[in-house]
Design brief:
It is a single chain. The chain has 12 helices and 11 strands. By secondary structure, the chain is α/β, with parallel strands linked by helices. It has 2 domains: about 5-85 and about 220-325, Periplasmic binding protein-like II (D-Maltodextrin-Binding Protein, domain 2); about 90-220, D-Maltodextrin-Binding Protein, domain 2 (3-Layer(aba) Sandwich). The strands form 3 sheets. It has a 6-stranded mixed β-sheet. The protein has a 3-stranded antiparallel β-sheet with strand order 3-11-4. Strand 1, helix 1 and strand 2 form a beta-alpha-beta unit. The longest helix has 23 residues, at about 240-260. About 40% of the residues are buried.
Length: about 325
C-alpha cells in the first residue's frame, strides 16, 4: 500500500532539515515539509497561518498559546502532537534604552513595558521570566503593538483594562527611544538595537548567565510552537500522530548527532555545545509527551495566572487526542 501523502508547514529551523530533506521518513507517510526561507520572520508567520487555514496543507507549526485557547474554547479543529520546533529563552528579549532609567530587574517595577502581543506563547513565557527575576507582571504598565513598524496594530482579541495599544502611527521601539516606554520585550531584535553604540540595548547583555540560572532553578527551556494536524486528517488515520512524533524524534536526534560530529557552523560551537550539555544535559531540546509534561503544565498554569485562559488545562487535556491515538 502506498504511503499516505501529508503536507506540513514550518519555518526553516535547522532541526527540521532531516525530515525536510527526506533523510528521516515517517513510517507509512509520504511527508512534504513546506518551509519558510532565509530565517524570514514574515515567512514564518505565513507558514503558521497556512498550517491552520490553508486547505492545501494538513497542518504544521502553530502557536502553543493558540492551541491552548482552542482547547479551552472546545475548538477541536486541530490535534496537537508533542513536537516543539521552536524553543527560546527570554532574558535576551528584554531591551531597554541605553540612557534610560532601567539598569536592573528591580528598576522594571512600576515602569512602562512594550510587548509585541498580549496572548502569544512568548508573552506567556515572558511573564514567567519576569516573576523569576522578581517582577510581578501586574506591577508594570503594558503597551502592546508592533516592534518596529509604525502602523496600527489589529488585534484579534480585546486588550484587558489597563493594557494599552500603541497610538496610531507609533512603534514600540520608537516609543522606547523617545522615553515613552522604559523597556521592550521582543523576539526579533529591534532594528535600532546595538550592544554598544545603539540607542537600544539589552538589560542583560550577558544573557547566557541568567538564562542558565533560570534553567537550573526552573527546569524550563521554553517551547513556544508545536506541530498540529487538521482533525479530519487525523481522524481518518489516527496512527499518523504517533508516526510523525516518532519521526520528528529521530530527526531531532540526527540533527543533534550532526552538530556534535561536525560542530563547524560557527567557530566556537563545540564549546557552546559542551557548556550547554553541562547545564541542560544532552537532550536539551526534547520532543515527546513525557519529557515535556512538566513544561506544558507550567506553561498552561502561567497562561491561567495571566488571564489568557479562564481555567487550568492539564497536559493530558492539552494532548488528549494524541494520547488517545
Amino acid at each position: 500500500m502506498a504511503d499516505l501523502p501529508l503536507i506540513l508547514t514550518a519555518a526553516d529551523y535547522a532541526r527540521m532539515m532531516p525530515l525536510a530533506t527526506g533523510m528521516v521518513k515517517p513510517d507509512g507517510i509520504d511527508l512534504t515539509l513546506l518551509l519558510g526561507r532565509s530565517g524570514s520572520w514574515p515567512e514564518r508567520a505565513t507558514m503558521l497561518r497556512r498550517a491552520l487555514t490553508d486547505p492545501v496543507v494538513h497542518g504544521g507549526e502553530a502557536s502553543m498559546a493558540g492551541h491552548l485557547r482552542r482547547v479551552e474554547a472546545g475548538d477541536r479543529s486541530h490535534v496537537a502532537i508533542p513536537v516543539f520546533p521552536l524553543r527560546n529563552f527570554t532574558a535576551r528579549d528584554l531591551y531597554v534604552r541605553k540612557d534610560g532609567p532601567v539598569r536592573t530587574a528591580a528598576d522594571l517595577i512600576g515602569k512602562r513595558i512594550g510587548m509585541y502581543d498580549w496572548v502569544a506563547s512568548g508573552s506567556i513565557w515572558y511573564r514567567h521570566f519576569l516573576r523569576f527575576i522578581g517582577v510581578d507582571p501586574a506591577a508594570v504598565q503594558w503597551w502592546i503593538g508592533e516592534v518596529d513598524e509604525p502602523r496600527i496594530t489589529n488585534h484579534t482579541y480585546t486588550l484587558p483594562d489597563g493594557v494599552h495599544g500603541t497610538p496610531p502611527g507609533q512603534a514600540l521601539s520608537e516609543m522606547l527611544i523617545a522615553g515613552e516606554l522604559d523597556a521592550l520585550l521582543s523576539p526579533p531584535k529591534p532594528r535600532k538595537y546595538h550592544p554598544e553604540n545603539g540607542p537600544i540595548t539589552r538589560l542583560f547583555p550577558d544573557f547566557r548567565v541568567i538564562e542558565r540560572d533560570y534553567f537550573r532553578r526552573t527546569g524550563m527551556f521554553p517551547p513556544q510552537h508545536l506541530i498540529v494536524l487538521r482533525r479530519p486528517v487525523w481522524e481518518a488515520n489516527k496512527w499518523i500522530a504517533g508516526a510523525l512524533t516518532d519521526a520528528f524524534i529521530r530527526g531531532n536526534a540526527m540533527f543533534d548527532a550532526a552538530q556534535r560530529g561536525f560542530p563547524y557552523v560557527s567557530p566556537w560551537l563545540e564549546a557552546e555545545l559542551e557548556e550547554t550539555e553541562a547545564v541542560m544535559g544532552p537532550d536539551f531540546h526534547p520532543f515527546g509527551f513525557e519529557k515535556n509534561r512538566d513544561t506544558i503544565e507550567v506553561f498552561a498554569n502561567q497562561a491561567f495566572d495571566s488571564g489568557i485562559v479562564g481555567r487550568r488545562i492539564s497536559p493530558e487535556e492539552y494532548f488528549a487526542d494524541f494520547l488517545a491515538s
